[in-house]
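Dear Dr. H.,

I hope your travels went smoothly. While you were away I took the liberty of generating a structure for the chain from your last submission, since the lab meeting agenda had it listed for discussion. I wanted you to have the full record in hand beforehand rather than looking at slides cold. The sequence, exactly as received, is reproduced here:
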Amino acid sequence: MALDLLSELLEQLQAQPQRAAELAPLLAPYLRPEPAPVEERLLSVRDAAQFAGVCEKTIRRAIDDGELPAQRVGERVIRLHRDAVEDWVDAAPARRAVGRPRRRQASHAVPGTGAVADAFRALDSRC
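The corresponding predicted structure, in token form, is as follows:
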């Protein structure tokens, strides 16, 4: 049914080019762009990190943990599909809930205090 409506709409637009020009901006958000060539959809670890807004180490950790599929090209070169990175980014809230605990800095840590700072002060007082 939807296919019949689309083919009917296409016939009408071909018969009335001026109407097609009016409707094009309205239909543009609903039309999928042509997929980019595979070469443009493959990302390096650095590009994937920039795309996802995380550091390269996070991308490498996700690859090692099996969260993010990647392809090795040779021994050292890693390539990731842009779609896989997008899916990984979209799953970020769920991944955080189950993933590794985040490291927190001690709230009581004040620079210049503690045992290490006391040891340095003791060394300075000897000189």
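Two observations you may find useful: The domain at 38-98 is CATH 1.10.1660 (Multidrug-efflux Transporter Regulator; Chain: A; Domain 2). Helices lie at 2-15, 17-27, 38-41, 45-52, 56-64, 82-90, 92-98, 115-126.

With kind regards,
E. W.
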